UniProtKB/TrEMBL annotation:
A divalent metal cation binds at residues 25-26, 127. Its main location: cytoplasm. This is Ribonuclease. Manganese or magnesium. Binds 1 divalent metal ion per monomer in the absence of substrate. May bind a second metal ion after substrate binding. Keywords: Cytoplasm, Endonuclease, Hydrolase, Manganese, Metal-binding, Nuclease. GO terms for molecular function: metal ion binding; RNA binding; RNA-DNA hybrid ribonuclease activity. SUPFAM superfamilies: Ribonuclease H-like. Residues 19-219 form the RNase H type-2 domain. The keyword Thylakoid does not apply. Its EC number is 3.1.26.4. Belongs to the RNase HII family. It is an enzyme of class 3 (hydrolase). Endonuclease that specifically degrades the RNA of RNA-DNA hybrids. It comes from Microbacterium mitrae.
């Protein structure tokens, strides 16, 4: 079975009520090292008649070798995009949900500034089943969580792939600082090789130290 192809059906309904949509999706929530990153993309009614970029899917469904090309097409297709980052330290200090909200607000601020809009005038389509944006300070925004939004909604799929490519590239870069953890392969997630390196060498400043480590191990 081929991967699900996102559409603009949900966006079309929302654009009957709002002048624009800022779609957001996160990557890195379940990693044990590295930041969380939220991607944001803005679309208008003019996108409804345009072709969805070739290969655009939920980023988890795109082969790694193809993600950069798909991300380039997605970036050209949307009217603006932005990334918001929250570090491993921020995850430790505030908890994962508040860190996601902080990253999302940073992404929304970036894309709204690029597009010259006030995000309170539109609607935020957030992948998932929980609004973590308003508790982090986005109370003036209309936020609509959509389960499987990155799979079904093209605007969220665009945000997903942009965030995924940026975070993966970052983890490949920091791999050189601590090659034993193999971040260029596992991207900070808890693979067997990553966990084994923690057992042998302990944790680094890139690790989320508050995440159930026992004697510098994570189990």
């Amino acid at each position: 079975m081929s991967p699900a192809v996102p559409t603009l059906e949900r966006e079309a309904t929302l654009l009957e009520q709002y002048p624009f949509i800022i779609a957001c999706d996160e990557v890195g929530r379940g990693a044990i090292a590295g930041p969380v990153v939220v991607g944001a993309s803005i679309v208008y009614a003019s996108h409804l008649g345009s072709a969805i970029p070739e290969g655009l899917r939920d980023s988890k469904l795109i082969a790694e070798a193809k993600r950069h090309d798909v991300a380039d097409r997605a970036r050209d297709w949307v009217s603006g995009s932005g990334l918001g980052w929250a570090s491993a330290l921020e995850v430790d200090q505030t908890g994962i949900m508040r860190a996601l909200g902080t990253a999302a607000l940073r992404a929304i601020e970036t894309v709204a500034a690029e597009a010259g809009v006030d995000p309170r005038d539109g609607v935020v389509l957030l992948d998932g089943n929980y609004d973590y944006i308003q508790p982090a300070g986005g109370w003036g925004m209309t936020v609509i969580p959509v389960i499987k939004g990155d799979r079904d909604c093209a605007s969220a799929a665009a945000a997903s792939v942009l965030a995924k490519v940026a975070r993966d590239d970052y983890m490949v870069e920091v791999h050189a600082q601590a090659p034993a953890y193999q971040w260029e392969r596992n991207k900070g997630y808890g693979s067997a090789e990553h966990r084994a390196a923690i057992v042998e060498f302990g944790i680094t400043p890139h690790h989320r130290a508050s995440w159930a480590f026992e004697g510098n191990t994570l189990f």
